[in-house]
Write a structure and sequence with these properties.
The structure holds 2 protein chains of 2 kinds. Chain A is mainly alpha-helical. Chain A contains 17 helices and 8 strands. Chain B contains 11 helices and 2 strands, in the order H-H-H-H-H-H-H-H-E-E-H-H-H. The chains are: A mainly alpha, B mainly alpha.
């Protein structure tokens, strides 16, 4: 903030500066560069979960490119003559044979395959965790509904992409999975048979489903994923990141670090750590050992055939659903139709439209840049936990054979436990979560009103005993990130008028202990933080 | 009338000669049978009956053959630890000599599949890849592609094959213990049976390339590891980075 003008440049500009100047003169990059590098990102740890998905995707693309150099997406039958002895002389497709070659006869092939597969599992998993973070903090609210929709699209496409990849090597497991997919397609009323024919170019297994899947897996879906990720990040960039309420944070600013250098350095380091984790998993833990499963043969099937985890909940719903088959008007609707198509259809639709439903129900039409803590919206949080409980029951049921075998439980008992659990546990989870949220709010109000219990008992001269309550400390100016549970909360109600609640929470964020938070004045912006950039 | 006399005489003669067995009826076998009977009366007869005739709690052992005895006793399934959905594999209680004696005794009650003998040349000649094909076509539906085992209904299960010896594998095929179907020599001949056993031993011993095999179950333990170590570890990293950041 000095007023002394900088001394005139005497040095000739270096090559970087010259290039920069040349680019600026032609494209006007300087302004955009300055604006974007000065963009501020908040630093809460939970905002990094989405980055795991992004970096997994980058690693998926890099390892995937390497694998395409050696993989032969062909259904042509060959006799294996590679270095894996237990399959020597066995008939198999070129796809399976080339996957064996990648695993045993290609330099670094197996570790790339394994990193690729682990990255796929982590990609979808981190999308799901990121989605939960966004859900429970209310980050999907206006103006971010579109990014929520894109996120749900990325989640669904990630699952499809993963399934296509799982199906490519044409081993016994992937063939079994595709066989089930063909059956699911066939179960659609009226058009099922034709849908299956369309996907597999005729009767299952047909002769060219692998080239088709290959195009889907390496071109079509990754292309859409890339475009959607670009849109997702572009919108995030434009709308700026949300943050939790805290000292100096308002609906109209962003408190954090600029993109350059701190945020960039942090993210690069985090990318390396994600890569390290994937390399660790890929190097130490076997994943999808296709050689142990053998080549696909429609006549064979292995017990404990499972999909990757992200399809597991549909496997579970199929295992739990009763074998109800409907016949009428010359058509049959098999039981698999409901748990494999109708159920995910309902689930993903509800997920996609949730922001609009919530806005409608609560009448909240305002824009929100400050996040909520889960307890501040008990009904939403309880709904989320309801969904998680339901999902978990289906998910566990998807692996119920392996669990039954491992823990020596009757498989039938597990199936029935899943059936009952899927109906009973989510409402219990809803009820308990909602109660817990409301109790936590009450505790917050208690602390806001009376301070923190010190455990020091004093006897007054008149003989009365009192316990000292220490008021909450005001924030230290140099270190304004105070845990948000010191934020005073509104006194009554369950906080379902969310717009109202956030405004009050925003008013309370100056962090001072106040008797009556209703009269807490608006904080006047952040004193010394970087400005919430453009 | 002549026919009736002849039939009666044949019957009488058969009952007179049959229990003595055949030409193998040597002194050594007799000794083994006697020792086996003593072991049997002590350890097995309370359920299977004094004559091996079976009872309310256990099946008849007449005609099960030495293969069944060797399989059940050498895998520790018999004597049964506790009644349940299925006999569990445990350490055998009897020594191999005692098992052979028990087998000789049960064999003497009336034939049945004999304990297989695999010679080394036969083992070396067995076609591993062909064994794998047969395994996937006949065994993997229950025992899982890598022999890890899987549950059946109501607490029964196809056991993990990693502890089974080649002899036990062939014995199980020939005698069909518990829920397992019987694969006779008409379905799977001697050489194929040995090839299957060789493949099972191979998938059990070779954990395979690429690191820890996670119990050979594929996606379920993989998913668990991806969540617990992958996501769990990276969330810990997020917390660590977040905690080191001032704002």
């Amino acid at each position: 903030m000095t007023t002394v003008p900088p001394p005139p440049l005497v040095k000739r500009p270096g090559p970087v500066r010259a290039l920069n100047r040349a680019a600026d003169e032609r494209f006007g990059t300087q302004e955009a560069l300055r604006r974007n590098l000065n963009k501020v990102f908040p630093g809460h740890w939970s905002f990094m979960i989405g980055e795991i998905a992004l970096y997994s995707f980058v690693i998926l693309v890099l390892t995937g490119i390497y694998l395409t150099l050696f993989f032969d997406p062909s259904n042509t039958e060959v006799v294996y003559d590679g270095s894996y002895v237990p399959l020597k002389g066995v008939e198999m497709s070129r796809a399976y044979a080339s996957t064996l070659e990648i695993s045993f006869d290609t330099r670094a092939g197996l570790v790339f395959r394994q990193i690729h597969h682990w990255a796929a599992l982590l990609f979808v998993a981190s999308i799901l965790v990121h989605l939960m973070r966004v859900f429970f903090t209310g980050a999907f609210r206006k103006p971010r509904e579109v990014n929520w929709l894109i996120g749900v699209g990325l989640f669904v496409l990630g699952i499809l992409e993963g399934f296509a990849g799982y199906s490519l090597p044409d081993d016994l497991l992937s063939g079994t999975g595709l066989r089930i997919a063909a059956s699911i397609a066939q179960s659609i009323p009226v058009v099922g048979t034709w849908a299956s024919f369309l996907v597999f170019n005729g009767e299952w297994p047909g002769e060219n489903f692998i080239p088709r899947l290959y195009v889907v897996h390496i071109l079509l879906v990754p292309g859409i994923l890339l475009a959607l990720i670009g849109a997702h990040l572009g919108i995030l960039w434009h709308q700026k990141h949300t943050d939790f309420p805290g000292p100096g944070k308002t609906e109209h600013n962003v408190v954090g670090h600029r993109v350059f250098p701190v945020f960039a350095a942090k993210s690069s380091g985090f990318f390396m750590l994600v890569f390290a984790m994937l390399a660790l998993l890929g190097g130490l833990a076997q994943i999808n050992p296709i050689w142990a499963f053998g080549p696909y043969d429609p006549a064979n099937v292995s017990s404990a055939s499972q999909p990757d985890w992200y399809i597991g909940f549909l496997d579970g719903s199929t295992r739990l659903f009763p074998p109800w088959e409907f016949r009428g008007l010359g058509h049959t609707v098999p039981a698999v139709f409901w748990p494999t198509l109708i159920l995910p259809g309902i689930l993903f639709t509800l997920l996609a439209v949730y922001p609009f439903i919530e806005a409608k129900v609560t009448g909240d039409k305002e824009s929100h840049n400050l996040l909520q803590r889960p307890r501040e919206a008990p009904t939403r949080t309880a709904l989320g936990v309801f969904a998680i409980a339901f999902y978990l029951v289906l998910w566990i049921s998807g692996g119920n054979d392996v669990i039954a075998k491992t823990f020596d439980i009757s498989l039938n008992a597990m199936t029935w436990a899943g059936r009952v659990g899927a109906i009973v546990l989510p409402p219990i989870a809803f009820y308990l979560t909602r109660k817990l949220c409301i109790h936590l709010q009450e505790r917050d109000r208690e602390i806001a009103a009376h301070g923190i219990e010190t455990g020091i008992i004093q006897q007054l001269p008149n003989g009365e005993f009192i316990e000292e309550h220490r008021p909450k400390l005001p924030p230290v100016p140099d270190h304004p990130r105070v845990p948000t549970d010191r934020v005073a909360l509104p006194p009554a109600g369950e906080g379902h008028g969310k717009g109202d609640l956030v405004r009050r929470a925003g008013r309370a964020v100056s962090g001072f202990f106040v008797e009556d938070e209703e009269r807490q004045p608006e904080p006047t912006g952040s004193p010394q933080r970087p400005e919430g950039g453009h | 009338m002549v026919l009736l006399v002849a039939l009666a005489a044949t019957g009488v003669l058969w009952t007179a000669f049959a229990p003595r067995g055949t030409a193998e009826d040597t002194a050594a076998t007799n000794e083994a049978v006697r020792a086996g009977r003593a072991l049997y009366l002590q350890g097995c007869s309370s359920c299977h009956g004094l004559q091996g005739q079976g009872g309310n709690q256990a099946p008849s052992l007449i005609g099960v053959g030495s293969a069944a005895v060797d399989f059940q006793v050498s895998t520790g399934r018999m004597p049964l630890a506790a009644p349940g959905a299925q006999a569990k594999r445990k350490d055998p209680i009897y020594s191999q000599t005692q098992i052979d004696q028990l087998a000789a005794y049960i064999d003497s009650l009336g034939g049945g599949p004999k304990k297989p003998v695999i010679d080394e040349a036969e083992w070396d000649d067995a076609d591993l890849a062909h064994g794998g094909e047969l395994y996937r076509a006949n065994c993997a539906q229950c025992h899982q592609a890598a022999g890890a085992g899987a549950p059946l209904t109501y607490g029964k299960y196809a056991p993990d094959l990693s502890h089974a010896t080649p002899t036990q594998i062939i014995e199980a095929m020939r005698t069909g213990p518990e829920s397992m179907p019987l694969f006779g020599p008409g379905q799977i001949d001697e050489a194929d049976a040995v090839a299957i056993a060789k493949y099972v031993r191979h998938v059990s011993e070779a954990s395979g390339a690429g690191g820890h095999d996670l119990g050979k179950y594929g996606p379920v333990p993989e998913g668990l590891l991806a969540w617990l170590v992958g996501i769990g570890g990276l969330l810990a990293v997020c917390l660590w980075i977040g905690a080191r950041q001032k704002v």
